[in-house]
Write a structure and sequence with these properties.
- This protein has 464 residues and is an alpha/beta fold.
- The chain folds into three domains: 245 residues, Alpha/Beta hydrolase fold, catalytic domain (Rossmann fold), CATH 3.40.50; 64 residues, no CATH class; 139 residues, no CATH class.
- The protein is 39% helix and 24% strand.
- The chain has 17 helices and 17 strands.
- An eight-stranded mixed sheet has the order 1-2-4-3-5-6-7-8, with helices on both faces. Strands 13-14-15-17-16 form a five-stranded antiparallel sheet. It has a four-stranded antiparallel sheet with strand order 9-10-11-12, sandwiched between helices.
- Helix 3 packs across helix 4 and helix 5 packs antiparallel against helix 6.
- The protein starts with 6 loop residues before the first strand and ends in a 5-residue tail after the last helix.
């Protein structure tokens, strides 16, 4: 492959483990993010490769595939903490280094912790990202329970859902590549054997025996861990440090990735720092570069068509813009708890640009929306401000027609029709509000049903 040389080493129980290393200096061994891993495809993914190259600037970056995954030996059916430690030990032993730093990622943090506790002479530093110390916590997560059901019945659907959940539902190409990595990195049968083994991992008793320097990194909003888990982990390891990344994303890591773009620019205006870059995946070789602009504000990412658009959006969020004085911006639920998608925009009618499929937006001056999940409930809140009360009533009628159409589609998609019945619509003065609430499990099941029917329909032969 075009990248680091893939090497192979045998574990104490005779399993072949694949790994590569990059750079020079003290080794940093990153454990796989089980249950899926594929070191070759990770390297071929531009976003991941840049991260590895950055990590290798001052160290020897090491990545390996655990048994049963990626380029390592696949014909295995037994997994446990001991076999996972054996995989790691084989790689560490092949590095010819006195000590290594370990980087555990979510489900493999127990492996890194146990190895550091049992072999203190081999580990210089320990980094734990969102540490799952007791794998059984996954069994109490309703979203993961639903995902496990899909993993059993529809492997392709499972990989697509996991990929979009982790990468982002709007990132089609990146999510597609990640779904392909998941399917290439592990088979359905192996995943069904490995996941229960992950649920059995528990290394709380090992934490006090860790003696190396330890850094615990955690995002509090991450729903995989019960509240307070990262704090308890850091308190249980002598002299460990804890760093919390507030918000639903890692701002520092996001900015670091953007800055690696070859055409990155930074624009400052007082305290405001706007980042500008060119999306290499969507670059038009026959046209001008389509620059993108964005910044982070509070727990949000603000994107715009230019610097002024981003600056205006931030002013609105701060409440210092005249547009924020009343109307949709106060009603768009921008501070909604658990929101993973939020938007606020003005001059929406100009953006619609007289497109027939955007009739509602063409009559809208301002738009605010929030989509999220809170305590097992999936919700959508949308607020529109029309040009007049009459237009607001017209918009309401159009939306009522769309809801009626969805409800009448019950013969083909009964579960979607049931969800459509939970949509609530109102219009007061110039404001139109649309809201929806339902259990996350029912929404997930309905989308799966619709996706499966469309998939089956597409697979049917076209009549001559």
């Amino acid at each position: 492959m075009d990248g680091p040389l893939v090497r192979y080493v045998s574990t104490a129980d005779g399993v072949s483990i694949a790994y590569w290393k990059l750079g020079q200096g003290p080794p940093l061994v990153q454990l796989p993010a089980l249950p899926h891993s594929h070191i070759r495809m990770e390297w071929e993914t531009p976003e991941w490769r840049r991260g590895y190259e950055l990590a290798a600037a001052e160290r020897t970056m090491v990545r390996y595939d655990g048994r049963g995954t990626g380029l390592s030996q696949r014909d295995v059916d037994h997994f446990s903490l001991e076999t996972m430690i054996a995989d790691l030990d084989a790689v560490v032993g092949d590095l010819d280094a006195e000590k290594v730093a370990l980087y555990g990622v979510i489900n493999t943090c127990p492996v890194a912790i146990a190895y550091a506790a049992r072999y203190p002479e081999r580990v210089s530093d320990l980094i734990l990202w969102c540490p799952v110390v007791d794998g059984s916590v996954h069994l109490a997560n309703p979203m993961l329970q639903a995902a496990r059901q899909v993993m059993v019945t529809d492997w392709e659907m499972f990989s697509e859902t996991v990929a979009h959940s982790l990468v982002g539902w709007s990132e089609g190409d990146a999510a597609r590549r990640f779904a392909e990595l998941i399917r290439a990195g592990i088979t359905q049968a192996t995943a069904l054997a490995l996941v229960p083994a992950i649920h059995k991992l528990n290394v709380w008793d090992e934490l006090p025996r860790v003696r190396c320097r330890t850094l615990v990194l955690h995002r509090p909003e991450m729903s995989l861990l019960p509240p307070g888990t990262a704090e308890r982990v850091a308190a249980s390891i002598p002299n460990a440090q804890l760093a919390l990344f507030e918000g639903s994303f890692d701002k520092e890591k996001l900015v670091a990735v953007v800055r690696m773009n070859p055409q990155y620019k930074e624009i400052k205006d007082g305290d405001l720092v706007v980042h500008s870059w060119v999306d290499e995946n969507k670059k038009d070789p026959n046209g001008p570069d389509q620059r993108m602009y964005g910044c982070t504000y509070d727990n949000m990412v603000v994107l715009g068509a230019g610097f002024e658009a981003v600056k205006q959006a931030v002013d609105v969020l701060k409440g210092t813009s005249p547009n924020a004085a009343d109307g949709v911006f106060k009603q768009s639920a921008l501070d909604a708890e658990g929101a993973f998608f939020q938007v606020a925009a003005n001059a929406v009618n100009d953006l619609a640009n007289h497109q027939n499929e955007a009739a509602v937006l063409e009559q809208t001056d301002e738009l605010g929306a929030a989509v999220g999940e809170n305590n097992g409930t999936f919700y959508v809140n949308v607020s529109l401000r029309a040009g007049s009360e009459e237009i607001a009533q017209n918009v309401k009628k159009v939306l009522e027609g769309i809801i009626a159409f969805l409800t009448l589609a019950g013969s083909e998609h009964p579960s979607l029709a049931e969800l459509a019945g939970k949509l609530k619509l109102s219009a007061v003065d110039r404001m139109v509000a649309l809201s929806f609430e339902s259990s996350s499990e029912s929404v997930f099941a309905s989308l799966k049903e619709a996706w499966q029917k469309e998939k089956n329909k597409a697979a049917q032969p076209t009549p001559p």
